[in-house]
Write a structure and sequence with these properties.
single chain; Helix Hairpins; D-amino Acid Aminotransferase, Chain A, domain 1; OB fold (Dihydrolipoamide Acetyltransferase, E2P); 5 domains; binds nicotinamide-adenine-dinucleotide
Length: 664
């Protein structure tokens, strides 16, 4: 094929892929689409005389389709893309002496919000960059972080990105396994295409502002962030960078924090910080010259679903695991992914042999989001058939719940036994550091381990009977088992993997005054359901399984394992003058110890707040006293805090108090 033909083929493909994408049913992952665009761009750059007319690369988005089209006051453009440090240096070289701001590139959909005399009059999507859809009604009903009124007169236009939080996306898919959303960005766009806000009420969005058009606009982008905040918006975080090294450091930092955020980022945006210089730089056909998007590794890719294997979990749940042709996604090579349950497989229409979209974003385990392009099927694809018997022990399975999850109820099923033992030894439970999954499997296969209590009978001599183990390792394992006898009530409850009883259940039982595992087993339904968040189903499961586990409790006790409540299981003792005494607090954003700059896991910081007398909660409500904010805070909690009149304090204030009280 000659170059002219190849260019035409690529241009046609770009148009076809865009059409499908902007109608809400993409045919390929973004990374694949970007590769087509990149090849086309490179060919046109090398042969400008062969550029197609019209050139799809000069166009932005797609024409508005659904609602009333509205003309933008100035075009809403795309951004020039970069993936290499040299391109960042070249951007600085184009504008000598001009400082640049670096900000996260949020992966949602852009909106223009028009305020007149302080009131929101219109919210408009990007559309084809010249005209967009009027989505004012939907935005008012469904988007957090967009004030109805701002303290400014005249005409004010704010631009930014509306995103669906990962937590909203996950919660929606858990609640609707029959019609799961593929990814947060597509879901956000779909939300703003709804005919009636009431039908998409669970699909809330959050708005982050990054641009402002008004006479009161600030001189520089740093002031721009302040100006946006003073109008009541959550502004994208903006850092000033004087040279390429500083910009690259800021980009790296944003990429490192990407996994800790509750929303998707697909890159970082560099932009001239001086407003006049930015305006003077002008625009190309589809992008401003004064900005650049540095793209991160894709969190979604397509690959072939090679097989589905049904895995038996510690509670007997039989879960489908996707075996994939290796694919580099979310920063690692993925060969396995979750498929949730048979209802999700049915709803997503997935078959073995299909080209599927795999998503790995944040701390979420990779999962198969769905099939994008069914027309790629060859006919050789096979249906995914759930097993009728347990793949490990062969016993018939039972179906539970609306998602028709499959369970093996045979408590002596070999696969379940191994999983339960591995779970017992894990850090969240008995924490037997030197006895890992591989050894547990070997020992269970040899018939030496069946119950957790058997672990505590292992001797060095016994271990040395196995191949590939030396004196040193055997000693280390036995010492590690010995050192881990102080399990206590909370971790024992977690370790026994009682169906429906979560870590939270274990914590609440300890805090409700239960002194030992036997006391929980004897409590009876009435006393159990009196504990916060424990309902009749969880109580029934606790009673059934702890009754069955009586002999095991006796064996654990006989082998010196503590099953009584321990100090670590209870809330810390707090002095009456502790800085946060009696306060209910919610912690949001990413937390850093100001002394070392080190990132602190949120639960660790919450524990520090508890030591200082606070009760911690996960969501903001009228009973919240303080919202403690770290870096990169989402707008939804802030909006709720405002609604309930909750005081918002920066983490630095709390750190000072904790340090002054000798608690941190
Ligand atoms: N899968 C497919 O078939 C397919 C087809 C077409 C397009 N796409 C995807 O759609 C996207 C194409 O969109 P695009 O070329 O307009 O670029 P883009 O969406 O990647 O970048 C431009 C957008 O970035 C957003 N943005 C986020 N944070 C920003 C910030 N801080 N400052 C300025 N802007 C910010 C703005 O909304 C702006 O419109 C690409 O990611 C592409 O992969 C996919």
């Amino acid at each position: 094929m000659d170059t002219r033909e190849r260019i035409q083929e690529l241009a046609d493909r770009v148009v076809a892929l865009r059409d499908a994408y902007y109608q809400g049913s993409p045919l390929v992952a973004d990374a694949e689409y970007d590769a087509v665009e990149d090849e086309l761009r490179a060919l046109i750059a090398a042969h400008p005389e062969l550029a197609p007319d019209p050139n799809p690369l000069d166009q932005v988005g797609a024409p508005s389709v659904l609602h009333a089209p509205i003309r933008h006051s100035r075009p809403m453009l795309s951004l020039e893309k970069a993936t290499k440090p040299e391109q960042v240096a070249a951007f600085f070289d184009r504008f000598p002496g001009q400082p640049v701001v670096v900000m996260p590139k949020l992966d949602g959909l852009s909106l223009a919000l028009v305020y007149e005399q302080g009131r929101l009059v219109r919210a408009i999507t990007r559309g084809d960059g010249t005209t967009g859809d009027d989505v004012t009604v939907l935005v008012r009903a469904l988007t957090d972080g967009i004030p109805d009124r701002v303290g400014a007169t005249g005409r004010v236009e704010v631009r930014g990105e509306a995103v669906m939080l990962r937590s909203t996306f996950t919660a929606y898919n858990v609640a609707h396994p029959d019609k799961p959303l593929i990814n947060p960005r597509g879901a956000a766009a779909g939300t703003l295409r709804a005919k009636d806000p009431a039908t998409v009420a669970e699909r809330r969005l959050v708005f982050f502002a990054f641009d402002l058009d008004t006479e009161i606009a600030a001189e520089t982008a740093a002031d721009l962030a302040d100006a946006l905040r003073s109008l009541g918006f959550t502004a994208a975080e903006m850092r000033h960078c004087a040279d390429p090294d500083a910009a690259l450091a800021a980009i790296t930092e944003i990429e490192q924090r990407r996994n800790d955020l509750d929303y998707d980022l697909d890159g970082a945006v560099l932009r001239l910080s001086d407003r006049d210089a930015y305006a003077a730089a002008g625009t190309r056909s589809s992008s401003p010259r004064g900005a650049l998007a540095y793209k991160f590794a894709a969190e979604e890719k397509t690959t072939v679903l090679a097989d589905v294997v049904w895995d038996v979990g510690k509670t007997g749940k039989i879960a489908p695991v996707a075996h994939l042709e290796p694919v580099f996604v979310g920063g690692t090579t993925v060969t396995r992914a979750t498929l949730a349950n048979q209802e999700v497989i049915r709803a997503r229409g997935i078959r073995i042999g299909d080209t599927v979209l795999v998503r790995r974003a944040g701390d979420v385990i990779p999962f198969v989001a769905g099939v994008l392009d069914e027309s790629k099927r060859t006919g050789a694809e096979r249906e995914i058939v759930p097993p009728s018997a347990c793949p490990s022990c062969g016993q018939p399975l039972t179906e539970q719940g609306n998602s028709r999850e499959l369970f093996c109820t045979n408590v002596s099923c070999p696969a379940q036994t191994v999983r339960r033992l591995i779970h017992w030894a894990s850090r969240a439970a008995a924490d037997i550091e030197a006895v890992g999954p591989v050894w547990i499997e070997r020992l269970a296969e040899a018939g030496i381990l069946e119950n957790p209590s058997d672990i505590y009978t292992l001797t060095k001599e016994r271990l040395l009977e196995f191949d590939r183990i030396g004196e040193v390792s055997a000693t280390r394992m036995v010492e590690s088992i010995d050192a881990a006898r102080g399990v206590g009530l909370r971790r024992a409850l977690i370790g026994l993997a009682i169906p429906m009883a979560s870590e939270g259940t274990a914590t609440r039982l300890c805090r409700a005054g239960f002194g030992s595992l036997e006391e929980v087993a004897d409590a009876g339904e009435e006393r159990l359901v009196a504990v916060e968040d424990i309902g009749p189903k969880v109580a029934a499961s606790l009673i059934e399984h702890l009754t069955r586990l009586r002999p095991e409790m006796e064996r654990l006790r006989a082998r010196g394992v503590s099953l009584d409540v321990r100090e670590e299981d209870l809330p810390p003792v707090v002095a009456a003058d502790a800085p946060l005494a009696g306060k209910t607090v919610v912690v949001t954003g990413s937390i850093n110890d100001p002394r070392s700059g080190e990132k602190i896991p949120r639960p660790t910081f919450q524990r520090l707040c508890e030591k200082a007398g606070a009760t911690t909660a996960s969501s903001v409500s009228a009973s919240t006293d303080l919202l403690i904010t770290g870096a990169d805070v989402g707008a939804s909690k802030l909006t709720k805090a405002e609604k309930h009149g909750v005081e918002v304090v920066d983490q630095s204030v709390i750190w000072q108090q904790l340090i002054a009280a000798g608690l941190a």
